[in-house]
Amino acid sequence: MSAGWNDFDWQLVHAGPQAPALHMALDEVITDEVAAGRRAPTLRVWEWASPAVVIGRFQSLRNEVDPDGARRHGIEVVRRITGGGAMFIEPGNTITYSLSAPVALVEGMRFEQSYAFMDAWVLEALRSLGIEAWYQPLNDITSKDGKIAGAAQMRRGKAVLHHVTMAYDIDAGKMLEVLRIGREKLSDKATQSANKRVDPLRSQTGLPREQVIAWMIDTFRAAYGLVDAAVSAEELHRAEALARDKFATAAWTGIVA
User: Fold this and answer.
1) Is 44 in a helix, a strand, or coil?
2) 110-135 burial by CB neighbour count: b if 16+ within 10 A, else e?
3) What percent of the chain has a predicted confidence (pLDDT) above 70?
4) What are the start-end ranges of the H helices in 65-208?
5) Residue 24: enclosing H or E segment and its boundaries?
6) What would the pLDDT profile of 13-49 be if each residue is shown by its tens digit?
7) How buried is 146 (Cβ within 10 angstroms: 0-12 exposed, 13-18 middle, 19+ buried)?
8) Residue 158 pLDDT more than 80?
9) Contact 164, 212 (CB under 8 A)
């Protein structure tokens, strides 16, 4: 039988802007620390230091990303350890968070069940902001106006990692110059159609990005408890080494060419 959210003492990590490769590494390090029992279950809210495209572990780099478009717009391409689809990231236009928890939280659940379960709190936050949002299998959060977010998840040792990228705002034209998949899906449509496919939180709430994030954090805290914390010096040291030696390398990014 799986454990409940309130069976754990949750910590919040919300640091300043960090490089895309370091975010990939922090997910791995923090999840491994939770799996080993050295860190409490953690909600980490990301702040981005620069724009990026984050591709899934099993995606083809050449199929997903136009390298000329990425270079032209100064967009770094990184690969994460979870599956799922490509995410187009701009620091002020994106809300990203990850949950690293003991695998007991989703014990016995199928992936579809665990996605819905781990997204339930943020759906409640969105609904309380006036957005009628719902989970759309396998890994999307959507509304009547379009997709809001995409999730990815993996079970790693004795822990589960679940992260979500939400569109607060979006430059659809730029996205279509960088992501091939978006271009293919919209090849016979005008650029404004991209905004219908991914409907930003800004247009649906009218609230500043920081206020949406604060509302989400408060919703989680009210439901499950949440203590402010930080990445330890040792965790950060390991993550920086992992970012340098793995996530920032062409070998890892191009592991599926």
Assistant:
1) strand
2) eeeebbbbbbebbbbbbeebebebeb
3) 93
4) 67-72, 111-128, 172-178, 180-185, 192-197, 201-205
5) helix 20-35
6) 999 999 999 999 999 999 999 999 999 999 999 999 9
7) middle
8) yes
9) no
- Per-residue pLDDT band at 198 (split at 50, 70, 90): confident
List, in order, residues 6 or more apart from 237 with CB less than 8 Å away.
none
Calpha distance 90→168 (Å, rounded): 10
Taking Cα atoms as reference points, which of 98, 59, 27, 33 lies closest to residue 246? 27
CB 220 within 8 A of CB 43: yes
88 within 8 A of 177, measured Cβ to Cβ: no
Contact 123/148 with Cβ under 8 angstroms? no
Beta pairing, strands 159-167 & 52-55 = unpaired
pLDDT digit string, tens, across residues 83-92: 999 999 999 9
Whether the per-residue pLDDT at 187 is higher than 50: the answer is no
Q: Among 89, 146, 98, which residue's Cα sits nearest to residue 122?
A: 98
The pLDDT value recorded for residue 199 is 83
Whole-number pLDDT of residue 223: 98
Amino acid letter at 205? T
Q: Report the Cα 41 to chain-centroid distance in Å.
A: 17
Q: Which whole-number Å values give the CA distances from 83 to 57, 163, 241, in the listed order? A: 5, 11, 23
CA dihedral (16, 19, 21, 27) in degrees, to 10, reads 10
The C-alpha atoms of residue 44 and residue 246 are separated, in whole angstroms, by 21
Predicted TM-score of the model (pTM): 0.93
